[in-house]
Each structure stands twice: as C-alpha cells, then as structure tokens.
Amino acid sequence: MKQIALDTWLNEGANTALPQLLCVFTDEPLFATQAADLYRQRLKKQTDYQRQIVEVDRQFDPQEFLSLFAEASLFGDVSLVDLRINQPKLGKEAAEALAKAAQWIAAGDTGHYLLVNAPKLSKTQEKSAGFAELLAKGTEIACRPVGADTLPGWIAQAAKRKGVQLNRETCSWLAEKTEGNLLVAHQTIEKLALEHQGAVDIEQVQGMVANSARFNVFDLGGSLLAGDAKRITRMMEAWKPKGRPPLWYFGPCKRRFVPFATHSRPYGVECLCRMPADKIEFGDKGKTTLRPP
C-alpha cells in the first residue's frame, strides 16, 4: 500500500507520478473535495478523458462497472471512473468487482483511471474484501483529522498555499472562530487570497469572519477534565442560539465519567481525582478508557 499525506499531495502533488488508482477515505468533505479536484486537474493536463461517475448503492451494477475498464473510450480517450461509496460496507458482488478492477489496473490490463471516494475506514474495513485490494494495488491519500490543537497550524499551511501569510495570533484567532468547521476556514482563506497577497494582519481577517465554530457535545467532557474554561465558554456561546439550558449539554458527559465510579475501587477515589489527563482516553460516542498509572 502506498500512502501520500494530504498536505504533501496538495503541496507537492505536481512533483509525483500520477497514480492510475487513487483512494480517498475520509469523513471530512473538504479533504475529499481537495484531493479529488487536484487528481482530476492533473489528469486533465496529462490527457483528455471522459468522466464516469458511479455510485455504489442498491442500483450498483458490478458488470456495468467493470465494462468501463474493458471498453475503449470514445475517440480513443481514457476514462476516469469516479467511484462514490457512501457506506464502507460492500456487498459480495461489489467487493469482487472493485477487487477485479484494482487487479486489472495493477497488471496494466486497462488504460483507464479509477478515483475512489469513501468514508473513513476502520482497521477491520481496510482488511475487508474489495477495500483490501484497492489499498494494496492503489495509492491512498492519508487524510489525518484536524483537532483544536492542530487547527492553527493547518490554517497557516492552507493560507501559505494560497500566497497568504498569517502570523500565529491570527491563526489562533481564526481557529477559535472556525473550530470544527474546516470548510468555513478554507473559504475564509480563499476570500483573503482574492483580496490580499503576502502578510495579512488580524484586523483584516476579523473584518470578514463570523463565529462559525462547531462543537461536538462529547468534547465537553474532555474540556472539563482539562480545566479549559476558555474553550468551555466558547462552546456555550456557540450552543446558545439552540435555546437549550446549559445543563442540558452536561447530560451526555455522564457517560464519560462513569468509568471513574467503575474503577474507583481498585484505584481509589483520591487517585482518580488526581489522575493526569494523559491517562484518560476519550473515544467515539463518549466512550472513556482509563490507563492505570
């Protein structure tokens, strides 16, 4: 399996060979759009192609899909099969069809290209039929999630690609206003690039940005344990228009604190109260894991 980090693909993509099979597995719409757009742009410069958009759904026809790789395109041009998979769970026939297409491409039995877009895969799904062959024979764009701590750096890099220089203060301020909403951060940078090139100060950014941060209610537990009062305040301000009382948002946090009560006997309540934040792991949907000291 060959992997290319999304930042590398966006920054240095023109310097790498264009893969015939590219996989983009991410839950972030912005990342999927950026990776796929650049792939199509580079292929367009290389050759004229016909784009065939195929959805893997109940109407998906494996034989029709495979025929796109077996037949010559109109006027002798190549085809780009733009495959959209909405759920990372393939039926048997669909998995076999994807595996066969990947094998044809790897063996040089077809001159057509395959671009696969799908949600982020779990480790189990990566090893499942169909996806395993795609990853083994193709190239994956690795889309790492951007959290609150890495968002300022992501903003700085995205701005740099557009010819805009933002200092640390400006990146941190913009990150606070767009946390959890990368699309708005990206759109803000594109607006800045249209009006400014080079260094841009924080006042110019503040003049065009509204508060567009989005928070997951399960993030509140981690912020409480970390004592991050500033972030908790931003969360409450963002949720205020929803009309719910503040205490409503603490309800889902109860699931995060259940392990404290469950594990209090072996560790002792005082031990748990003093447990460092790096000994507590928060998973999806509020699942909490305690790592013994």
Overall description:
With 293 residues, the protein is an alpha/beta fold. 47% of the residues lie in helices and 16% in strands. The chain is built from 15 helices and ten strands. The protein has helices at residues 6-12, 29-46, 62-70, 92-107, 123-126, 131-137, 151-161, 168-178, 182-195, 202-206, 219-226, 229-239, 254-262, 264-267, 269-273; strands spanning 2-5, 21-25, 49-56, 78-85, 113-118, 139-142, 164-166, 198-200, 280-282, 288-290. The strands form three sheets. A six-stranded parallel sheet has the order 1-6-2-5-4-3, sandwiched between helices. Helix 4 (92-107) runs parallel beside helix 6 (131-137). It is globular and about 60 Å long. The two termini are 37 Å apart.
> Distance N terminus to C terminus?
37 Å
Q: What does the overall shape look like?
A: globular
Q: How many DSSP helices?
A: 15
Number of E-state strands: 10
The percent range for strand residues is 15-25%
Q: What is the N-to-C succession of helices and strands?
A: EHEHEHEHEHHEHEHHEHHHHHHEE
Percent of residues in helical segments?
40-55%
Low-confidence spans: 263-293
Main β-sheet description: 6 strands, parallel
Radius of gyration: 23 Å
Side by side, the strands of the main sheet go 1-6-2-5-4-3
Characteristics:
293 residues, alpha/beta, six-stranded parallel sheet, two-stranded parallel sheet, 15 helices, disordered C terminus
